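#struct-help
A.M.: can someone run this one for me? Single chain, 295 residues.
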Amino acid sequence: MRIVVTGRDGQVVRSLIERAAHQPSIELIALGRPEFDLTRAETVSETIYAAKPDLLVSAAAYTAVDLAEDEPELAHAINAVGAGIVAQAAAAIGAPVIHLSTDYVFSGEGDRPYTETDPTGPRGVYGRSKLEGELAVAAANSRHLILRTAWVYSPFGKNFVKTMLRLAESRDTVSVVSDQWGNPTSALDIADGILRVADRLRTDAAFEAFGIYHLAGTGNANWSSFAREIFAESSKKGGPHAEVRDILTADYPTKAARPLNSRLSTDKFFDVFDWRAPEWNVSLAPVIDKLIEQN
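D.P.: on it. Structure tokens below:
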């Protein structure tokens, strides 16, 4: 099965490359800049047609949450217009599309995990652009699976886990927000979930359960408890660690509003694909191992 994924350096893409390397039935091709650029619409479709995917994974995105407040046009061009063009190109060659989305499409209100049918209500430019992307993908390709995820970390790229370990190298105490809750999610688990979907599409010609799903780590935490677990795991292995001081969102203002509740229910994904990510702290340990090895 030939899987083409947009983006080359993102956490999920690099995790997919690592996981797919152990599956000989899969040929994975990553498309990235400069030859593949979502801001250059005229080249997007041609590049996808040339790659001839059996399945297209739409992972490339504008992810600078705060900067998006100053660059709404660019965020919209990539996350909405670009995503729609990718999905349309897949439809034109008869390929389904898996599109990655985010918890930021929700307002962050309430005290329970969001389900796929809950009303959306993004509070910032980034979330609005991703929601517009979901709508564009759904309109362009009826064979779509939109996977919303949250709080992504991995051994690759920039993420919260790597930031905490870096700060602990020079600080004894780190202040971390304690009133935002979500599902810490390993990009390696997202890759496993995507490959689970790909296998289902490959083996089930009658598959019709297209639509929106949540794919995130099992269990939830706030940012400060996530940080404490990071340092506990790192300390076990002789890596950097620090004390965590709880602060409130109001104590750490950002240009873009963060949702206080980013928890996602993954029951629908489990019901359809019979797969659920491990508990988030279980998935964290091997990522910490790899990061310490790299250093």
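A.M.: thanks! The two ends are 35 Å apart (CA to CA).
D.P.: also worth noting: The chain has a mean pLDDT of 96.
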